[in-house]
UniProtKB/TrEMBL annotation:
One of its GO terms (biological process) is glycolipid biosynthetic process. This is Galactose-3-O-sulfotransferase 3. Signal peptide: none annotated. The keyword NAD does not apply. Residues 415-456 are annotated as: Disordered.
Amino acid sequence: PPPALARPPLTLQMSQRKIFLVFIAISTVSLLLHHGGHLSWTMEAFHLGCPALRSHPAPGLKPKHTNVAFLKTHKTASTTMQNLLFRFAERNNLTVALPVQACSHQFCYPRSFTSHFVHPHTLPPNIVTSHMRFNKAEMQRLMPNNTIYITILREPGSMFESLFSYYNQYCQSFKRVPNGSLEAFLEEPWLYYRHDEKDSMYARNTLTFDLGGDKDRPATDVAYARGFLAEVDRVYSLVMIAEYFDESLVLLRHLLSWDLDDILYVKLNMRTPSSKKSLTPGLASKIRSWNSIDALLYDHFNASLWRQLSVLGPACVAREVKLLQRAQERLMKSCFGGRMPLLRSAAQIKNKDLRPWQPSGKVDIVGYDLPVNLSRGFSSQAQELCLKLIMPEVQYTRVLLRTQSLRYRQSYQLRPAQQSHTIQQPIRTSLPRHGQLQRTASGTGSTSTSKPAAGT
Ligand SMILES: *[C@@H]1O[C@H](CO)[C@@H](O)[C@H](O)[C@H]1NC(C)=O
Ligand SMILES: *[C@@H]1O[C@H](CO)[C@@H](O)[C@H](O)[C@H]1NC(C)=O
Ligand SMILES: *[C@@H]1O[C@H](CO)[C@@H](O)[C@H](O)[C@H]1NC(C)=O
Ligand SMILES: *[C@@H]1O[C@H](CO)[C@@H](O)[C@H](O)[C@H]1NC(C)=O
Ligand SMILES: *[C@@H]1O[C@H](CO)[C@@H](O)[C@H](O)[C@H]1NC(C)=O
C-alpha cells in the first residue's frame, strides 16, 4: 500500500484503516495458501467447539512442544507411537536420544536406564522413545527440564496373551509350560515363574516393570500399589490407552499443540490374526490377578483418559478422530497405489529394510511392502514419507543414528575452521544436568497399543 503512505495527514486515519484492511486481506490469502491442506479440517473442527484445534504456524499460537519423553512399554502399540515420534523429529530437525551400539536398539533393557546408555552423537536430545526400564532421576538428567512425559498401557488380558505368545521361546517362565498352554500357566503360575531369572519381566506385571516399579509386590501390598500409581500420575502428563489409540492421539495433539499431520500413523508390529487367541472371562480374570499391579494401573489410567476426553468434549473428540482417520486413509491410498497396503509376512517382503523382527517360528509378525511402482509420479519426499511410515523399529533406529551421527560430525568439523581461536567443545563426557521435571497442565490419561521390543 505505498499510495496510502503518500497521502496528506488529514486522510491519515482513513489510510490506516485501509492499510489495516489490506493487511487483513493479505494475511487471509497467505493463510489460505499456506494452510490450504489443513483448512478444511480446521474449520470443521472449529465449528464443533474444539478450541485448541488450529493450524500451525499461525500468529499468536503456542508453538509446537518438541521436548518429549515417551516410555515405550511392551506389546502396547508403542512401536506405532515410536514411529510417529521418529518422523516428527526428522521433520523438525530434532535430536532423538538413541542407544549406544552395545545396548542394541534398546537402552540396555531390562537394566534400569542410565544416561551412559545414550549414544554421544545424539546429545542433547529433544525426544527419547526407545525401550528402556524407566528411571526418573536419570531421565531428568538427560532431558530438558520442560520435557513432557508420555506412556501407553494396554488392557492386561489381551496384553498378557500377547506377551505369552510373543516371548514363548525367550522367556524361561513360559518355556517351562507344557504344550505352551496359557491356561496351564495361569492355573499354577508359581510352578513355572521364577522372579529373578532372565526375561522374567515378560511374565508378570510387565507394565509396572517398564515404568520402573517392582513387579513382584504381592497383590495384598495395597500401599505399594497406591504409591506407585501416584508416582506415575505425577511424572506422566499423558498415559495413552492402546484400546483407545486414536482418542489418545487427540489428547496428545492438544497437549503438545501439534497438527493433525503430526499424528498420522500406520499400525506396526502386529501379529497375524491367526496367532491371536481370544480369552474366556475366566482366563482374563486369572490374568488380572496374576498381574494385579498392572491391572490397577490400567483401570486408573483408563478412567483418567476418559475424564480428559470428557473435558475436551465427546463431539470434539469424535470429530477429530474422524478427521484423523480420513486423513490417514488418504495418505495410505496415495502411498500404496490407490488402495490400502496388504499386510505381508516377513518372508514375503522384498525390501529387507521393511522386514519386521520375528520373535519365533510360532508367531508371525506382519509388515508391509511398498508397491514396486511407487516411484512413478512421486516426489522423493513423498516416497521417503511412505517408506518411513512402515519402516520397522530396528531399521528406523539404525537410519536415525546414521543421519544424526553425520550431523554431529559435520557440526563438529565446522567449528574449528570458523572459530579457530576459541576452544573447541570436546565430545561430551558427562551429560547436561536439568532441573526438576515440569508438570504440564493436563492430567493423565492413557492409551496404549503394544509393540514388542526385539526380545533380547
Ligand atoms: C531442517 O534442516 C534443513 C537443513 O539444514 C533445513 O533446510 C530445514 O529448513 C530445517 N527444517 C526445519 C523445520 O527447521
Ligand atoms: C499336551 O498335549 C498332549 C497332546 O495333545 C496331551 O496328551 C497332553 O495331555 C497335554 N498336556 C497338558 C499338560 O495339557
Ligand atoms: C475404559 O473406561 C471406559 C470409561 O469408564 C469404559 O467404558 C471402558 O470399558 C474401559 N475399558 C476397558 C478396556 O476397561
Ligand atoms: C502400480 O501397479 C499396480 C499393479 O501392477 C497398478 O494396479 C497400479 O495402478 C500402479 N500404480 C501406479 C501409481 O502406477
Ligand atoms: C529450565 O532450564 C532453563 C535453562 O536451562 C532455566 O532457565 C530454567 O530456570 C529451568 N526451569 C526450571 C523449572 O528448572
